[in-house]
Design goal:
binds magnesium ion; eight-stranded mixed β-sheet; five-stranded mixed beta barrel; alpha+beta; binds 4-amino-1,4-dioxobutan-2-aminium adenosine-5'-monophosphate; BirA Bifunctional Protein, domain 2; 2 domains
């Protein structure tokens, strides 16, 4: 039965099963005989009792008793490891915590309470030994996330980080499913671009390494200055000329010099754009639904992995998350938010003033004030938002139809807006920002079947921090990049 799960198709239809029945070599795992059984499948009972099983993985524990040695093997498919029962006669001398092994044996019901299934080993092969002294992780020790961060090339071997990576993978799948189920088309927006969508100047320039080293003239590989993208929004906006709902999910880059627990130089952003949209409400509805649907999906698919964080890393987060999922998100205007901050009588490091961007301390206060429920702040001052945000034409406190979603413990998770589709207003805004020539193509979109539209961007790492209660953004991405650090 487990063979069926290897390919996720009914028996007989899957390419692996077909190759096996035809006696061909199994290309999937590079093996010529029995296919590998994933430990997650063995433990879930999908495999049942089975002879001639082969597992591969890394040793998480070794416990020698008088006659028998028990090993626990993990292959990354589940948090729980598979117990291996090794009888005397099997050569396990050099097998230590962290070793890579391949084991053949019989999968049986376990007589022990701790697990349902165990593997009685017939043969154990040491594939890669692990230096017991130099290996930075010690058996039975609970290492802090901060400690593990020193070893980006090794931390996937810990239970905590492998749980994180499975959750990250599931979250990514949940987000794609949400968009697919709701009729959005996935667009691959470019990584190299000639625009600075956000206008904040936090750009990494792209040139061939040989160019920068050898040439001192002003020529560019692409003839124009080009950069790693800070957002795929403008490219998604192009697509709203032909598709009513689009999204993208990819890496974005910001040369921000901040070393905070919420900023990275390379992070993943989920962005969506909706055509024929005249109200921020429509955008906020998708933002809220995406958060709630994807989170519920992750909680149901990876309960053990999520529990590890909620139990040991961020106690209390489970309850906080339940509140977020259960309650409708709150909505405040920026002007109301400033009023709340003024009335708080609290001393902030940065005094809240109408016209200034909200600081983390302000965001945290607002979320607490609203009962630790996510809060949409809408209608920001015209002067602090990028050129594309739609003018509310409301003076004297002049605002644009922009929205940020503030989350407990995280602050800003999403940013979005309606986009300025009115050509005259857009032109004067571009002129004001000194962008008249750069964005001719953007202006041109307004001539050919242009429609009111809007969208948002969600910081994927901040999203993971938010659901798991992880303090530092560097602990939710496999290889964090930030100023003064690009290890590996
Ligand atoms: O608010 P931002 O800058 O919005 C945009 O880029 C829009 N163009 C998106 C759109 O409307 N399509 O970024 C969106 C989100 C933020 O709310 C935050 O969660 C995350 O991206 N983010 C970062 N995450 C990690 N490190 C950084 N340096 C981040 N900067 C933004
Ligand atoms: Mg923002």
């Amino acid at each position: 039965m487990w063979r069926r799960r290897l390919v996720g198709l009914p028996l007989g239809l899957g390419p692996v099963a077909k190759r096996r029945s035809e006696g061909l070599q199994c290309l999937f795992h590079g093996c010529s005989s029995d296919a590998r059984l994933q430990i997650g499948d063995a433990l879930s009972g999908a495999a049942g009792e089975e002879e001639n099983v082969r597992v591969q993985g890394w040793v998480r524990s070794v416990r020698a008793q008088k006659e028998i040695t028990f090993l626990h093997i993990n292959d990354g498919s589940s948090l729980q490891s598979l117990q291996i029962v090794a009888h005397p006669g099997l050569d396990i001398r050099n097998i230590t915590f962290g070793s890579a092994v391949e084991i053949w044996g019989k999968l049986v019901q376990s007589p022990h309470k701790k697990q349902n299934i165990e593997l009685r080993a017939d043969k154990i092969k040491l594939v890669g030994s692990c230096h017991p002294v130099n290996f930075p992780f010690k058996i039975k020790e609970r290492h802090s996330l901060e400690y593990m961060r020193q070893f980006p090339h090794l931390r996937c071997k810990t239970n905590v980080f492998s749980s994180l990576l499975r959750i990250r993978s599931e979250a990514s799948a949940a987000i794609h499913s949400f968009f697919k189920d709701n009729g959005f088309v996935h667009i691959h927006t470019p990584i190299i671009t000639s625009n600075d969508c956000e206008g904040a100047g936090e750009l990494f320039q792209v040139e061939p390494a040989s160019n920068t080293a050898e040439k001192n003239d002003n020529s560019h590989f692409f003839d124009v200055p080009s950069f790693l993208t800070v957002s795929g929004q403008l490219h998604l906006e192009v697509m709203t000329g032909a598709f009513t709902q689009v999204y993208t999910f990819g890496p974005t880059f910001r040369a921000e010099n901040s070393q905070t627990r919420r900023h990275l130089a390379e992070f993943y952003m989920v962005e969506a754009e909706l055509a024929f949209t005249e109200s921020l409400k429509d955008i906020m509805e998708v933002m809220e639904n995406l958060f709630k649907t994807a989170t519920s999906h992750i909680l149901s698919k990876r309960p053990d992995d999520v529990e590890l964080f909620h139990k040991y890393i961020a106690p209390g987060q489970k309850g906080r998350l339940e509140q977020m999922l259960k309650n409708p998100f709150q909505v405040l205007s920026y002007t109301e938010a400033i009023g709340i901050l003024h009335r708080s009588m609290k001393t902030f490091k940065f005094e809240p003033k109408w016209g200034c961007d909200l600081q983390t301390e302000h965001e945290n206060y607002l979320v607490e004030h609203c009962g630790n429920i996510p809060v949409f702040v809408i209608n920001y001052p015209y002067d602090i938002k990028p050129f594309y945000a739609r003018d509310n034409q409301d003076g004297p406190q002049h605002t644009v139809a922009a929205v940020d979603l503030l989350m407990p413990g995280i602050g800003e998770l999403y940013g979005g807006s309606l986009r300025e589709e009115r050509l005259d207003l857009l032109q004067s805004r571009l002129k004001q920002h000194g962008h008249k020539d750069t964005y001719q193509w953007y202006e041109e979109l307004r001539h050919f079947g242009s429609v009111p539209h809007g969208g948002f961007g969600l910081g994927f790492e901040r999203y993971l921090q938010c659901i798991l209660g992880i303090e530092n953004i560097k602990d939710v991405i496999p290889f964090p990049r930030f100023s003064h650090s690009c290890f590996l």
